[in-house]
Design a protein that fits this description.
The chain is an all-alpha fold. 76% of the residues lie in helices and 0% in strands. It has 11 helices and no strands.
Amino acid sequence: MKAIFSDSIRLWRNKWFYLSGVFTAFLLWLDLGADVNLLRYSEKEEIVRLMTEILSGKGNLLSLPLLSVLPCSASVCKEMSTGAARYAVFYCGYGRYVLSKITAILLSALLSQFAGVMLFGGIISWAAGFPVLAPAPLVAQRLLVASCFAMSGNISALLTKDIVSAYAIPVVFVFALSMFRWRFFFDATYMDPMMWLSAEGIAIPFSILSFLLLTAISLLLTTWEVRNYV
């Protein structure tokens, strides 16, 4: 069991895991803009509304995909390129290695985003002078979408055999999808990445199905690539 989750244990020594959480809080705070001045004089309901707008706003269009993949999504491709994967597989076996990697990728995205949102909430609470928490469904939906991006980063890196693709392709894909939606498919709300963060209507089942599909593809592709490489 320890071998299976060894990458998850090492996650706590990954500087990019912590930086992703800090950057998440920092960028969310920047998205407040001039509304920062309203925090000290606003009611709790108004501040929660502001947090909801920030957590599902356009500022997440590029930052969320990048910050979701930053901690760990390129790890499999990186270990294959350096040869470390061969020794790891020899030590723990194919199945345990793949499961450990997929688990680490998911946990890195989930925990770094959760830490970032909690840190953002703590800063908001300090500025407002009283505790303020973001709506739980909105936070859960953000974590689900972040997991989708993390899986897509792993898939991108393995398909292209390029570590940079793990970071670039999810960001480019989200930006392109948003542009196509607003220019050519205005009624296709499911194509809007910001709709995925809303935790309303079709967003929840669409995100769940996307997560299951991307996780399955990531698991199968990782297994295929590792078996062909080692």
